[in-house]
Structure formats: structure tokens, C-alpha cells
Amino acid sequence: MATFLIHKPDEETRVIKLEKALLTLGRLEDNDIVLEDIFVSRRHAEVVRSGDDYIIRDCKSRYGTFVNGERITEKKLNYGDEIQLGNTLITFVDERKLDRVPERRIVIRKFGDVPNIDEYLENMKEMIQRGEKKERLIRLIDDIKSIFREYKEKLIEAERAREIASTLCEAGKVINFIFDLNVLLNLLLDLGMRMIQAKRGFIMLYDTGTGELRLKVSRNMGAEFNIQKSPGISKTIANETFKSAHTIAIEDTTRDDRFKNVGSTTLYHIGSVICVPLITKGKNPIGVIYFDNPSGEKKFYRYDIELIESFASQSAVAIENAQLYEKIKREERITERLQRFFSPDVVKKIINEEKAIKPGGEHCIATILFCDIRGYTSLVERIDTVIALEILNEFLSSMTEEVFLYEGTLDKYIGDCVMAIFGAPVNHPDDPLRAIKCALGMKTKVEDLKKKWQERLKIPDVIGFEIGIGINTGEVIAGNIGSEKRLEYTVVSNAVNIASRLEDIAQPGQILITKDTYELVKEYVKVRTLPPVKLKNISQPVEVYEVLGLI
């Protein structure tokens, strides 16, 4: 039978057979399996039996359900899986193989170096038998008291150190699994408040953009954070802590001269305060974690300060890791979006040089290329629609590869037409020549595609499959254009319209360029001069050249 082995520090392993079809796990007494763990939710998870399978589901718990270190919503369990709910570790095993499951043990260290009480008692007994004076006995008793006070303090310190280490170890088991920054910050604040029994608290992180601390999460701060006229004592302490990179701990704010003029001390009845800087391993302050209690309630003492300082160091590392994880994920998303329009090399330049694509656009000189299939509509009428779509996708993919080969920008697909830009957002001294090389490459690629289609698809109709290309160079406005919900990088100007119109009049297999482009490439390109043409919606005739090849 399927069985849970539940392991907890300082407790014997519990063995629970999964006899019911549905079992619930959580802190509440009405759960089938009750887990006394502050990091476990009241109704944390459930296990459902489906035939021979057992499925564990997270019940929207605050700190998550993990199977073999991975946070899950729902997962089929396999024998040997390790489930973690808070600080409780559960092993899913087959009852018949229990004897093969290694026992988990937690070794607790014991304190030594205890004073020899027998020796002191023997001395006292001899002194009484000899009839020593009372004063000498009193001094001996005082010596014993002094020694025991010293050892008691050492034991208390050692116990505190053990508790801090144990608490941080248990906290680390939870926070090291979390890379969602918002979830992590909420968890850290809750853990800190529980550790020192604080009523209120917040975490602020440094914003490199504004150069100020920004509130990220808070608990029970109320209206103080809405006050505009004065920052209040909590924000004042937070700013002071961050600037100095040292802990500020106040046992009683009403008796601290540093903050007697800050009005919120009285207004919010703040009594005891701890504010600790969050400092990374590289000694960089990234924020603060703050706790306070009202006047008349628990005060914070040295032990609380030591605990929170250690916890803050651990928290800073976790926050830095989460921020790094979010940065990597953000860059991956940006890279994925950019790769739809730019070659991998251009993407690297945009990211590495932090070349921003400005909203609203910027003026620049660019060369625009339009490439369109001639007779595609009539071809579609003669062949199967699925094959026609396959041909179109292969064509667009092949043309895009050619654009990226010369580090151009794929602007858009317009049906069976490709629009590309050379010179934005990344420019090169030879962008016009790159555009022409790309156009010549496109013609070669089309011939290769036609041979493949004839062999693979057995379609003679593709013999007449041709493209026409128009190229123009001029000033454009380049940038993100569209609505708030959908933005696309593109260029707009009359230069774009001329390139589009040239492509319209290009005959099958023709590459047409304007004089503006020709003047920039004439040393490298063979052309045939054509008569000036009147283009649609263009007021003046345009001088046109047909590209024949490279010199």
C-alpha cells in the first residue's frame, strides 16, 4: 500500500498509510494529516487516488507545494518522491519496501564544559564539618553562584546561536526554492515578523532609476505610508539605515532624541523598532527590512537584533538571486521578441549596446526593400490550398533568412510580400549595398525553392513562380508604432512609399532601385538605366535603375 513517511526535526518519523481515496494535509485539526508547521497553510494540499495512481494537488497554499524540489500545482506521485510542505518533508513509498527506505536522522549537538558541582558541594560539606565561619560559607556560595551565572550566560548564548542557526536553516529551506520576487518578498516579511513577534513591517528596495527606496511589501502600516507632508518615523529610519548601511534598533522611540521631532512616533504609538540594511555578498546595499511594535507591547532586544541581522543577510542573497532570475527571464523574453524581426547578431548588438528602440520614433537614413511574389494569387487557384500555404511559408522563411544574413530588419509580412529595412535600428556604412546583395540572394533562393517544390510536390505550375523587388534609400522615422496593446517596430516616410511603388511595377525577376540608392552603390553594382516612371501617389517622376548584378 502507498505510504507517507513524514519527517520533522526532533520528532520520530510518522508512517501514514494512504487508505482513503482523498486525503487532505494542513495545519487545521480537521485535515486527514495534520502538520504542525508555521509554513504550512491551514488547508495546504490534497492527495487523490485514481486507480493505482496517486495525485497530489496544491490547495492554493501560501508557500507552495514542492515535489523533488520543483513547485507544483498538480503532479502524479512516484514511489521515492520527496514532498516538501513548509519545513515538513514527506517521502512517498511502497509499504512493502519500507525496510529499504533509509532512515532520516537529525543529530542534535549537546553542550559540554559543565562546572563540577560535586567538587563545590564536597568543599562546602567539609567546611561545615570543620565548623568554618558563616562568612566563608557565604563566600563559597557566592563563588558557586557567580560560576553558575557565567555558565548560564554561556549556555543562553549558545542556545541563542543554535536557535538562530536552526531558524535560518529552516527559513533557507523555504526561500531558496522561490524565484518570483513578489512572492519571495512577502514570504521574507512574514517570516521576519514571526521570528521576532513584530506587529508591523515592510521591505523597501533601492530603485536605480529614481535613486530612492521604493516600498515593495508591507504589513499593517496603515495610513502612515499615505502621508505626503512628512515621511514619518518608519521611512525616516529606513532612509537612515540604507544610507549608513548599519542597523538602527530602538528599544523605545519616545526616549530616543534622534526621532523626537518625527510626528508619527506619537501618532502611530510606535514603541520598539528594528531596521536592518539588506546587503548582498558583494557588499552592495539593495534595500532595508523594517519591523516595529506599538508602545506597551513586546520590545526588541539584542537577541532579536542578532536574529534579524542574520536573517537580513540571508534575505539579501535570496532577493539578489530572484532579481537576477527575473532579469534573465526578461532578457529571454526581449530576445525572443527581437528575434522575430532581427538577425541573431543584430539582437546581440541591441542588447549588449543597450540600444533602445525609442517609443514615438527617431529620424534616420535607411534603405527599404519590398519583395513580392508575381502571380501567387493565380497559382493558389490552380493548386491545393494546403500546398499553397506550405509554399508561402517556405518562401517567407527563406526570404527572411536572406534579410538576416545581411543584418537587415524584418519589418513585416504583407500577404506574400516581405518588407525589410537596412539601417534601423542598427545601421552600417554599406546598408544600401547590403539591401541589393539581399535582393540578389532572394532571386537565387527562389530558383532553389522552385527546384525543391518541383521535385517534392510534383507541381509544374511553380516554374512561373517569380518575384519582383523594389529598393529605395531615404530619410525615415523609425520606432514602435501601434496601440498600447500591440506595438510593432517599423519605418514610415515617403521613401517607404516609393520603395513599395517600385516593387509594384517591377516585372517578374526584376530588382528596381531609385537614383538615391544607385548613387550610393554605383561603384559596386551593374545596372540598366530605365526611363523615369510616374509612380502612384508620387508627384514627381522617379529615376529608376534595374540591378543586373555585382561588379
Automatic annotation (TrEMBL):
Q: Quick check: keyword Iron in the entry?
A: no
Q: What residue range is the signal peptide?
A: none
Q: Give the matching InterPro entries.
A: A/G_cyclase (IPR001054), Adenylyl/Guanylyl_Cyclase_3/4 (IPR050697), FHA_dom (IPR000253), GAF (IPR003018), GAF-like_dom_sf (IPR029016), Nucleotide_cyclase (IPR029787), SMAD_FHA_dom_sf (IPR008984)
Residues folding into a coiled coil are 117-161
| Location of the Guanylate cyclase domain | 367-503
Tell me which residues make up the FHA domain: 23-72
Keywords, ordered alphabetically: Coiled coil
Please provide an example of a Pfam family that matches this protein in its UniProt record: GAF
Q: Which PROSITE patterns match?
A: FHA_DOMAIN, GUANYLATE_CYCLASE_2
Q: What's an example Gene Ontology biological process for this entry? A: intracellular signal transduction
Molecular function (GO) terms for this protein are: adenylate cyclase activity
Instruction: Please state what the protein is called.
Output: FHA domain-containing protein
- Specify the species: candidate division WOR-3 bacterium
